[in-house]
Write a structure and sequence with these properties.
Strand order of the largest sheet: 1-2-3-6-5-4
Strand content: 35-45%
CATH topology: Pnp Oxidase, Chain A
Order of helices and strands: HHHEEEHEEHHE
Radius of gyration: 17 Å
Shape: globular
Distance between the termini: 33 Å
CATH architecture: Roll
CATH superfamily: Electron Transport, Fmn-binding Protein, Chain A
Largest sheet: 6 strands, antiparallel, barrel
Length: 173
Amino acid sequence: MNETREDIAALQAVLDRSYASAGTHLLRIHTPERRLSAEQLAERLQGMVLLTLATVTSDGRPLTGPVDGIFFRGAFHFGSAPDSMRFRHIRERPQVSATHLPGEELGITVHGTAREVDTSEGPFRQALMDIYLPRYGQWWIDNILDAGSVYARIEPERMFAFYMDESSSTGTS
């Protein structure tokens, strides 16, 4: 885990605030025993996970697309090309939503603001290299990381983390 005690405490505060202001439908599904704590969330989100990221067009339409999600220091990060539609939207309207939904048993959604992060040095760069270097080798560093890709951190304003093992399924929807 890359999270400090302070990161876990801040993430838990976001989760608590989010559930405190959630609607009744969501709360019927995300019952307390089905919610992940900040620590449980950080433990589950090791390495790279796929996210569906939503950005907003200039005329207010949401657009979604898949991105590699890296959970680092209590928040999701993702990358793309600097000239991608995704980053053009983010630079003009940084509000985003993202969901990690690998199956019916786990669902993590975050709503927040995307902020570009520096990947030229530091612990986040090392986290990226730990994930991608074994998978793709030096090619990834030369052709992706150091070839102009940009990364952003989603500063979470609301976040929901649902987990239901098969034995606790009640069919509520």
